[in-house]
Structures are given as C-alpha cells and as structure tokens.
Task: structure prediction
Amino acid sequence: MCGPSATPSTSSALLKSTTGVVIGYRVVNQVLVTVRDLRRLGGLLDQVVAAGANDVGGLSLEKEDISAERGRALERAMSDARARASVLAKAAGGSLGEALQVNEGGPMPIRPIGVMNIRAASVSEVPVSPGELEIFATVDVAFAIR
Result:
C-alpha cells in the first residue's frame, strides 16, 4: 500500500482553577500515520499543518522489514564471538572447539540515526531527508576448548 494509513486517538480534559471553577477545556487528537512512499511525506505534512495541526511530533523513519539486516547482524555477532573466544582459548593454551550452546541476546533496540531532517523553509513542501538505522544483535555462545 503506497497511501498513508492513520490510527486516531482522542482525549479531553476539563480544566479547573484552584477554586474548582471551570476555566476551559483541552482536547487532544492524536493520529498515527504510516506513509510508505517517502516522496509523498513532505506534501502530506504541509496538508496536515494547513488543515490546522499545531503540534506535529514524534516523526520517525523505520524500515518495515528488517529481517535480512537482522540476519546479517546476527551472523556478524556470531563471527565476533567466535573470534574473541578463539583468542581466549589460545591464551589459555588450547584451541577453540565447537559451539556447545548459542543464545540470541534480548531484543536490541533499532536506533534511528539522523532519522529525518525537517526544516521550516519557504519551499513548496516540507523537505524530508532519510537517515540511517542501526540494527544490533547480541549472542551468548559457549564453546568447547580443546
């Protein structure tokens, strides 16, 4: 799906002074929008502001399927574990044997780096620049020492 999808939520609050007199109401309407076509995002943000949005925040870019990248991160983590264990085995006077037990570490966060750059400027639409994602993988491995 290339078009945006939205999930709205609304909350409201009754504002009272310290004496209990109603002094106003506050209504918050939040919408979570998923846009899969980055080229459309700048224009969509312009439309949102033009429609009256006065607090646009929590913008982030995420990749929908990170399974290939996660697999490569796990392979690198395992390779790193094997290399470190080999050094330790050699320092102990032995050599590295087979992996006896392998556990993937807990779910590591996917950290956005320079997620996006949105600047207020006199251009036709809000400029949006993609950033990078760092994907972490942790493994705990027990190796045999020969």
In short: The mean pLDDT is 77. The radius of gyration is 25 Å. Helices lie at 41-50, 67-91. The longest helix spans residues 67-91.
